[in-house]
Amino acid sequence: MRQLLTSGLLWFSAIGCGLMAGVYFAFSAFVMTSLARIAPASGIAAMNSINVEIVRSLFMPFFLGTTLTAAILAGLAIFGWGEPGSIVTLAGGVMYVLGMFIVTMIFNVPLNDALAAINQSGAEGASLWGRYLKDWTFWNHVRTVASTVACGLFIAAITAK
Prior knowledge:
The protein is an all-alpha fold. The protein contains five helices and no strands.
């Protein structure tokens, strides 16, 4: 039974990490660059709209669900230490929870909150927008790499089992 549960969690986590990596990659590769090319007030309005919609979308069940399954897998790996794939399962869980979820909560969400609170058409908005683009995108790159690496680690765990 535990083997079946672990296998299901690994598959869900690998797919979830891959989906999240793809979303973050799109923002890193072209969304933020495109938003940087338009007027700051328009960029801020567009990003604020994205930030409102994303929490209402199918993104959230995968964002939260994958975080939960990655954390569960890390715990199962500790309790099943020495079993095939336990090291890469633990590494994948820790990589995802720290590199994606914790980074999001500590860096990206506060940046989003600051952006939502600013007067987008004033000089203060333009100044914040420049910093936001640089800082948010940097931390998004971290989330992209962490999600991609965690996906690979979970796939390695699946093959080890």
